[in-house]
Amino acid sequence: MPLGILTIAAILQQNGNDVIVYKPKQRLINKKDFTKVARDILKSKPDIIGFSTWCITYAASLLVAQEIKKLAPNIPIIYGGPQASILASETLKNFSFIDFVLAGEADNSFPQFVEELENKIPDFAKVPGLSFRNSSGIIQNNKINGVVSNLDNLPTPAYNLVPKQKWLKLDVGRGCPFKCTYCSTNDFFSKKYRVKSASRIILEMTAAFESQKIKTFGFAHDMFTLNKKFIHELCKKLIDIKNNKGIEFNWTCSARTDCVTEQMLIDMKDAGCKAIFFGIESGSDKIQKSIEKYLDIPKAYLIADICRRIGIDMHTSFILGFPNETKNDIDKTLRSALQLGVNGAFVQISELSLLPGTPIFKANKNRLKFDGEFSNFSFVLCGNEEIELIKNYPEIFSSFYYLPVQTLKRQEIIFICHFINKQSNFRNTLFLLSRFINSDLGDSNLLQLLIKEYKLIISEGRDQNTVASHWIKIINRFINKNRDEIKNPFIDDIFTFEAFSSLLKTLLASWQLINPLITNLKLSGDIIIKPTPVWKIITTNYRLEKIVPSENSWAVNKPRIRKGTYKYLLVAVTETKCKRIRINNREEYLLQSLMKLSFAEYVKKVNTIQNKKETLLWIKKMRRLGIVEFSKEK
Questions:
Q1: d(Cα 334, Cα 457) in Å, to the nearest integer?
Q2: pTM value?
Q3: In the chain, what are the domains?
């Protein structure tokens, strides 16, 4: 949920306005979906409807707005957020059903717009940042009048308008002083870096804990660690709360590798920081300079080592397909991604996505191509109506296009991105093999090796999206090749655990597309229980809780490893998370007895080890885990 909406909602509430925040519960694919959402929104009989817009959902939001205007032509529709801010004139010019666009930070301007709208003769020229069609039908763009300098003056976002959850995203600051050529953040926030005070952030965290018992937070700020004094103060306050009140808050944030120090990271860890996202983007010094990122890559390796050692998860991102990128530049990026991966970092890589308004977009907008495979990292699934919009307005939907490069074919880039993004599924195995991997690669060309793997997949007629299986084959060959030198007796157990977890997560994504979840069936004797394919029982020779490096401070050799026979249930719960549950022989029997049959038949099948009431509770638990689903048809 965009925090900007919730902050504006809080201001409107203070002004006596009633506010409803609506978020579709499922991905919108066809016209029927857009019409349904439009009708749902109109049920509350709104006086005005506002959309917060992002590049990946812009087409869908326009299709919803179009349906709303058909059903209720007199209700004003206003757009805001990063995408609309950049494309205000283009949006009003091409989509007559959008009445207004409000650019930039709208904490002050949106309430002013609402007040103006209530006047008999509204003067929209008074509203900073507002774009609209004047009485002559000409698009008028008002100048943005600054930003909110003191974020502490803003009310706490109206979290009461969204469903309660186990963790909360906090608006801790805005703006970024850096000028990376591919990024639109600094323009949207007028390049002005700000943070809320440490005291204000603590106030919001403690309020969430007292009202909802929430102790886990995601700090929303693209460059959280720029002000070292601020970080020191915040960490000290959080540590004091932990020591004096016994409340241990956990949180995550985003930063640059050149804006953290070892001592800062140690303080952040002590204060509850669990993970940090670092955008690195390229392993090439030349590309770092051309995109005006200017990061020192060796320092990124050092930061990864520190984060792993002290227990902070490091998440990193890379980009392929910059205009002036050579094969040598790409090879350096791939090496950096692999080096950070074997160092325990979570690594993601994506094809360059050209965002409207950015310098890199302005220089290359006439070279964009569309083939239906989107270049963004968010794996957006679009229906036919969205595709038509995207194809008809390339400059508005540029993030769905790709920039052809001379160095690699499009499908090669897509494969490499898929391949590297599966690396994190095997980070414990790769960490244990890091010495052999670094030695084996030496001065070899990693890009050439990956292109060779890509050609092998194509020649075998396999879908390149099945890269999890390819990773398993490669690692298995590598372990067998170095078997005599590997001193970890538990490497096979860890690899088995990560291999099946990776396969199950991959399977879950496709399973959910073709099997929508049915939740309204109540369990009775004639209800059919069907095992899903997204779980697996594995047997290990060592207790995983004692040997998995990421769960044991990244130690290579554990002094108290437990040998024996251990059984685990693995079940994919999301596309990025696989749950691991240690099970006993009785639970293994219950799981292995699952098949497509009625609940009454299953009760009869397992009645030698548990009664009907126990089986009822157990099956309901398995349904919550996603191990079985219910049906009325056999």
A1: 19
A2: 0.91
A3: 3-141 (3.40.50.280), 168-368+403-413 (3.20.20.70), 491-631 (3.90.930.50)
